[in-house]
Amino acid sequence: MNQHLLTICYLIGSITFILGLKMLSNPASARKGNLLAAGGMSIAIFGTIFLFSYDENGTTHYLGNYIWIFAALIIGAIVGTLAAKKVQMTAMPEMVSLFNGMGGACAALISIVEFNHLSKELGATPTVEMIQHVQPTVLIIVLGLIIGSVSFAGSMIAWGKLNGKVKDFSFTGQNVLNMVVLAAALGLAVYMIFNPQQHMLLYAILGLSLFYGIFFVMPIGGADMPVVISLLNSFTGVAAACGGFLYDNKVMLTGGILVGAAGTLLTILMCKAMNRSLKNVLIGSFGGNKKGVAGVAGAQGEHKEISLSDAAMVMSYANKVLIVPGYGLAVAQAQHTCHELEKILTEKGVEVKYAIHPVAGRMPGHMNVLLAEADVSYDILMEMEQANDEFPTTDVVLILGANDVVNPAAKSDPASPIYGMPILDVEQAKTVIVNKRSMKPGYAGIENDLFFRPKTSMLFGDAKKVLQDLCTEIKNA
Amino acid sequence: MNQVLNFITSNQEIIYTVILMIFVGIEIIEKVPSVLHTPLMSGANAIHGVVIIGAIIVMGKAEQDNYLALALGFIAVLLGTLNVVGGFVVTDRMLEMFKKKK
After folding, report:
1. A404 is catalytic
2. Which domains, and CATH codes, for chain A?
3. Fewest CB within 10 A of the end CB: N or C in chain A?
4. In this prediction, does ipTM exceed 0.85?
5. Is B75 in Cβ contact with A21 (below 8 Å)?
């Protein structure tokens, strides 16, 4: 009876995952979709704890060690909720990466425990039949170990990079070394499948996979981290599916493969939003030296500054103002002040809209989330193509801490690491005002010619402070 | 060769599931707007936390005196819970921002 109940629990789990993911891809139903999947997950988890049974030596056993299981569940739930609730909106991407790494580590640990179990059964000198019998299991265990640990190590590096703890790092021949390490791990894996009694090799594979995970993410530029996290996310999905194979567990299998497939497609969609190929992201941006050349190549004149009162004046007498938000806005937590400015300008009869680049901020959709938090209406958020049509009729473009997404080098300089990425054509507008904290280059580490163009004026300072002052100035004007 | 064929035949149910799931996964998110890329990734991230079920099974099966399995299983369940709970809560927080206005 319990067995049948568990099957139903798993069935519910699988269906809610599919429906949840489907609902997550539509803004109107996204939140419900997430809750639905969470509900299905709870049913599957508690079903497993209380209903799972297995046969050993002819008798049916239920799972034991409840104290341990619940202790881990409760600690994990409390820490996870607190971490997720406390995290700043700007740090969301890091958090996703961190949680993804936890999942990868979980899959790798399962593989290690299951292999230890298996090698005890095999003993030191197994017969040929015994080896043949366990080969498929060993294959799955080793696969889960490799994918899980690559995902874990990679996610940790991505997490460190996004919060600035880990710097970009690459050396000549790193690609070759990475390939050699991966080949070594896979080679050892194949050897293990035929010689499963060599159980110490498992730790060698673990070490190589961790090494590969670290050095695979290390050289990729910080601006490409969302793509990498999405890719590692789908890796973890596949690692979870390996667990599904291992226990012939349908909910793990379907959930894992679902995320593996959807995650891979999502990775490709993200690359498309930046007009780059996945290969280009993973290998192309390795040239640390290329960046330096691109930076110097553009002839740089003087940038000119604009005073607060002038900026306020220009904006309040404009017909149409487009705001381009970027990471600077997110860091300064200036979304509410930005909305304030938008309202004041609108009251003065100025048409205000936002131009959202798909990869502005640290993640696709980052800006939308941020502005939605400040109650900015959907109707005035424009996607890139729409915005590019509007720039020629725009009087003032106010750039708030965005840099790479408005860098003209993406169109004109083939040596630039962001060459080919579609950008917001802010130069089509009459005036461009750029708010930045300093002249330091953006996240991709490249100079931006836009700041030196005659149409452009710089308005230095923290986005929130500057916006507050602008609001006061415009009100008083 | 025979072994491979045997493997396919005896696991055909799983192989079918995998193939169908790949298509489902691709199909259902094909039309996602770029606004939702991040929440979708985060939601998918929480769903692969289903790996925790494997961890629970490992933990539940571990013998009382097998301290290695107990310790590793405990860590695995803990990490899996972080993935699931943290993942869903973070996604919800992101999507909370999309709520209807006016």
Report:
1. yes
2. 1-86 (no CATH), 91-286 (no CATH), 303-476 (3.40.50.1220)
3. N
4. yes
5. no
